[in-house]
Design a protein that fits this description.
about 80 residues; mainly alpha; 2 domains; flat
Length: about 80
């Protein structure tokens, strides 16, 4: 890996760590009950899971299309 790639990876990891720390701080300072916060987090996690599944399916479809195009160009 080049120094630039290492720097970008470090920047990305720092961003993710900052998001996690900020999220935890926000939860600790939240003026609502713990059960409501847990319910909201559960709903958010479900939404993220669904979106990740959609992104995965879209990516797989794009890979399949690319493979089919490549095969047609090569004549396989």
């Amino acid at each position: 890996m080049t120094d630039r790639q290492n720097g970008m990876m470090g920047l990305g990891l720092s961003f993710v760590a900052g998001c996690i720390v900020g999220g935890v701080a926000g939860l600790l300072a939240a003026p609502q009950s713990g059960s409501r916060t847990r319910r909201q987090l559960s709903n958010l996690a479900e939404d993220v899971r669904e979106k990740a599944g959609e992104v995965k399916n879209d990516a797989l479809a794009a890979v399949d299309r690319t493979l089919e195009q490549s095969r047609s160009l090569v004549g396989v």
